[in-house]
Amino acid sequence: MTARFLTMLCLAVTAASPAFANKVFVSNERGNTVTVVDSDTWEVLEEFPAGNRPRGITISPDGALLYVCASDDDTVRVFDTETYQEVYTLPSGPDPELFVIHPEGNPLYIANEDDNIVTVTDTQSHTVLAEVPVGVEPEGMAISPDAKWVVNTSETTNMAHFISTGDYKIRHNVLVDQRPRYAQYSSDGTKLFVTSEIGGTVSVMDIAADGTPTLVHKIGFSVPGVLPEWLQPVGARVTGDGKWLFVALGPANRVAVVDAQTYEVKKYILVGQRVWQLAFTPDEKYLLTTNGNSNDITVIDVEAQEAIKSIQVGQQPWGVVVQPN
């Protein structure tokens, strides 16, 4: 058998192989579990225990480890993404709610709602590197693409705090509207979007080359037939090309589609009840929503900007993350 024939055979087998399906992991706050969904078939693969009141959820850059904020256990539980077995826990500080991981997989930056701090945890040594005092009831966490800044939003202080990852000092504070829940950088790091649940807005900040933020706009929402107090921005995601911002609107049961350049709301997508957090598949073909009161996730076709499927998961789904390629 010639080398040329073997090469052609390998190419043929590769071409015939099915595309890799990414696993979707959903934290179920009331069910105390994580549900695993196949992103190809959209079938539920597994549901496993994840500690008490799992909320924030993220994954290591290589897709091997799943990190879950077990809020009522005051710890971060770490699971193998293939076996779903817990491999260890990480110190988190009290009541961990949301976190972000460094692009290289270490460290983990954790919002501790009860103690008004951000805990920085080394994922390799399993030790706390720093505790950063922030505003009252910290929740949202974001990390800049260059990993030089971590942003925390404090629900009661109504601020976004910009923490230098070099020395864990707060360098900037920006006042936003009432009860900021989530923060999201654009992929090029030039913009930051902060959702305010009670304020009903998304604050838009321009980010200078040195990381300095400037508040430039606030996006509002209006849906015919929906009470204004139901329009509660929570989770948010920006497409990699910077064109579209998707915002979960909580009890309004809708995801807003916003032009991320003009800040004009173009569309509202009807999803499940009490939509909370969002996550893209790696190719950004789909956007997934967690719907806490209908116990399901919605699959949105990003290009068509339409909901195409609903999948039942556990009790009160809260967070969602998709395994990277």
Q: Note the run of SSEs as H and E.
A: HEEEEEEEEEEEEEEEEEEEEEEEEEEEE
Beta-strand segment tally: 28
Quaternary state reads single chain
Tell me the β content: over 45%
Protein architecture, described:
The structure is a single chain. 4% of the residues lie in helices and 51% in strands. It has one helix at 3-16, and strands at residues 23-28, 33-38, 44-49, 54-59, 65-70, 75-80, 86-91, 96-101, 108-112, 117-122, 127-133, 138-143, 149-154, 159-164, 170-175, 180-185, 191-196, 201-207, 213-219, 236-238, 244-248, 254-259, 265-270, 275-280, 286-291, 296-301, 306-312, 317-322. The strands form seven sheets. The chain has a four-stranded antiparallel sheet with strand order 3-2-1-28, with no helix packed on it. β2 (33-38) and β3 form a beta hairpin. The longest helix has 14 residues, at 3-16.
Summarize the structure.
With 325 residues, the chain is mostly beta strands.
Secondary structure elements and pairings:
Blueprint: H1 3-16, E1 23-28, E2 33-38, E3 44-49, E4 54-59, E5 65-70, E6 75-80, E7 86-91, E8 96-101, E9 108-112, E10 117-122, E11 127-133, E12 138-143, E13 149-154, E14 159-164, E15 170-175, E16 180-185, E17 191-196, E18 201-207, E19 213-219, E20 236-238, E21 244-248, E22 254-259, E23 265-270, E24 275-280, E25 286-291, E26 296-301, E27 306-312, E28 317-322
Antiparallel strand pairs: 1-2, 1-28, 2-3, 4-5, 5-6, 6-7, 8-9, 9-10, 10-11, 12-13, 13-14, 14-15, 16-17, 17-18, 18-19, 20-21, 21-22, 22-23, 24-25, 25-26, 26-27
What attributes does this structure have?
disordered N terminus; 1 helix; 325 residues; 4-stranded antiparallel sheet; mainly beta
